[in-house]
Design goal:
By secondary structure, this protein is of the alpha/beta class. The protein has eight helices and 15 strands. The chain has one domain (about 1-335): 3-Layer(aba) Sandwich (Rossmann fold), CATH 3.40.50. The strands form three sheets. It has a ten-stranded mixed β-sheet, sandwiched between helices. The longest helix is centred in the first third of the chain and has 17 residues, at about 1-20. About 40% of the residues are buried.
Length: about 350
């Protein structure tokens, strides 16, 4: 225990001294230790970088960005939305840059939506996976040694508990969304935390996979409770293939998993946009009012639909494809209409 305390203290000291901040470091009790860094020049004014102890793994010093809308005064219960980033590279030249930029905030414009609609928004940060020099989430079901001691499911549960303790959260309106690694984690959060999550919105994610072809496929556990799902995926996704691969689970399998376990009608309502670019499948009448929606962008890549940063040189048609819908708008509309019953 003493060694663990020393390691945590050294980590905090390094972060507090090397990270270029003007704010002060605040220590709370031994169970919940938090560092409050006031200078967040790469985030919006009301988005702050926070630290806490969370999860069961050894690497339990965690960070997250907290966005509280200006309208929040604590008098009324508000929804809570958790936004999970995709895998982000690590550079020894700029070792702390990951903690100086809430890049999903600018990429999805979800903070603007939070200010408009009045919900509290969290952007949790993944741990560094040393073997690959990347920040990525542990979805919980992949038994890989490089994920040892990273308890992201425990982190999310502790983080939700912390928000409920500190803010007036509507506990029937807790939602999770994310892109890529965050999309995988969104599916996992819905499965592992189905007792508290009302709906999830994975973008370019899957319910399972494996590291090598010599392994069996691993999957999310069967959820104990129904959870509504709205998913987005491009048919030309080069990182998480839409139709699956030798190591990736397909979109159809991911959606079927939730349709079955939510008890939705197996035959969806299908709509194709006038352009032929957006195919929508909607599965209705699930248990406890749950539904499962899938938005497929025909020709779409590994992107967040509707964001102007999706542009790619020489691929103007992809820009047009991805701009036809806004994932941010559709996700919030879906969340708003799917509280936990």
């Amino acid at each position: 225990m003493r060694k663990k305390i020393v390691v945590i203290f050294v980590a905090m000291l390094l972060i507090g001294t090397v990270l270029p901040v003007s704010g002060r470091i605040i220590f709370f009790d031994n169970e919940k230790t938090e560092i409050n860094l006031e200078d967040n020049s790469l985030a919006s004014d009301n988005t702050k970088l926070k630290w806490m102890m969370a999860g069961e793994g050894l690497r339990c010093l965690r960070s997250y960005w907290l966005h509280v809308p200006p309208s929040y005064d604590g008098s009324t219960e508000v929804p809570l939305v958790i936004m999970l980033h995709g895998a982000s590279g690590f550079s020894f030249s700029y070792p702390f840059y990951f903690f100086r930029s809430c890049f999903m905030e600018g990429y999805t414009e979800f903070s603007q939506k939070a200010d408009e609609e009045g919900f509290i928004l969290l952007y949790p940060n993944a741990k560094l996976i040393f073997e690959f020099r990347v920040f990525a989430f542990n979805p919980g079901w992949l038994p890989a040694s490089y994920l040892d001691n990273i308890d992201d499911i425990g982190f999310l549960r502790d983080l939700i508990d912390k928000m409920i303790d500190e803010y007036n959260i509507n506990q029937s309106r807790i939602y999770v969304t994310g892109l890529s690694s965050g999309g995988y984690m969104s599916y996992s959060a819905g499965a592992y935390l189905s007792d508290i999550i009302a709906a999830i919105a994975p973008v370019a994610g899957a319910i399972g996979g494996r590291d090598t072809e010599d392994e069996p496929f691993y999957y999310c556990p069967i959820p104990d409770n129904p959870v509504s799902v709205i998913a987005f995926h491009g048919t030309n996704d080069s990182l998480v293939p839409y139709y699956g691969s030798s190591i990736d689970v397909s979109v159809n399998e991911s959606i079927s998993f939730w349709v079955e376990h939510n008890g939705c009608e197996p035959v969806p309502d299908v709509n194709i946009s006038d352009s032929g670019i957006i195919e929508t499948r909607k599965y209705f009448n699930g248990d406890e009012g749950t539904e499962v929606f899938l938005y497929s962008t025909i020709g779409g890549e590994h992107w967040w639909p509707g964001n102007p940063l999706n542009s790619a040189p020489g691929a103007q048609w992809l820009i047009d494809t991805i701009q036809e819908i806004s994932a941010t708008d559709l996700i919030w509309d879906f969340f708003e209409n799917h509280p936990k019953q």
